[in-house]
């Protein structure tokens, strides 16, 4: 079973940027991949997903600010986050269909 390891989280000021990475232990070329987030006291939500061919979709709240991409040769997916807002604060987790999760990385947006 593939294993996923996220990195790139941290503390950033409002309006700042971060890039999250999700490295897989083996090929993910045939998998739909996703980034989810869960804020304290809230349900986990799908932020972005990307097909094996590279077509990405986003939740409305991040459209225009977040970009998901994949590098199948490196078995890695990315989430580029710009113009971050305090409401983006959450644990971000990588997902590989059908049902593999990473451990998550904390993103905190605060001044």
Task: Explain what this protein looks like in three dimensions.
By secondary structure, this protein is mostly beta strands. Helix content is 0%, strand content 50%. It is built from no helices and 11 strands. The protein has strands spanning 4-7, 10-12, 18-24, 33-38, 45-50, 56-58, 66-71, 76-81, 90-96, 100-101, 105-109. The strands form 2 sheets. Strands 2, 4, 5, 6, 9, 10 and 11 form a 7-stranded mixed beta sheet that branches. A hairpin with a 3-residue loop joins β9 and β10. The chain is globular. The N and C termini lie far apart (40 Å). The model has no long low-confidence stretch (mean pLDDT 97).
Strand content: over 45%
Q: Give the topology string: H per helix, E per strand.
A: EEEEEEEEEEE
Largest sheet, in brief, is: 7 strands, mixed
- Please state the structural category: mainly beta
Distance between the termini: 40 Å
The number of helical elements comes to: 0
Q: Give the averaged pLDDT, no decimals.
A: 97
**In which range does the helix fraction lie?**
under 10%
Rg measurement, Å: 13 Å
| Low-confidence runs | none
Principal-axes geometry comes out as globular
Total strands: 11
Which labels suit this protein?
single chain; 111 residues; 11 strands
Summarize the structure.
With 111 residues, this protein is mostly beta strands.
Can you lay out the helices and strands and say which pair or pack?
Blueprint: E1 4-7, E2 10-12, E3 18-24, E4 33-38, E5 45-50, E6 56-58, E7 66-71, E8 76-81, E9 90-96, E10 100-101, E11 105-109
Parallel strand pairs: 2-11
Antiparallel strand pairs: 1-3, 3-8, 4-5, 4-9, 5-6, 7-8, 9-10, 9-11
């Amino acid at each position: 079973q593939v294993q996923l390891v996220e990195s790139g989280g941290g503390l950033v000021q409002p309006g700042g940027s971060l890039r999250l990475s999700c490295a897989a232990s083996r090929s993910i070329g045939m998998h739909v991949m996703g980034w989810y987030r869960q804020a304290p006291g809230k349900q986990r939500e799908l932020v972005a997903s990307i097909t094996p061919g590279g077509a990405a979709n986003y939740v409305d709240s991040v459209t225009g600010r977040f970009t998901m991409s994949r590098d199948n040769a490196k078995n890695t997916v990315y989430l580029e986050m710009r113009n971050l807002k305090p409401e983006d604060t959450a644990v971000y987790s990588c997902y590989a269909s059908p049902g593999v999760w990473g451990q998550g990385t904390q993103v905190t947006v605060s001044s």
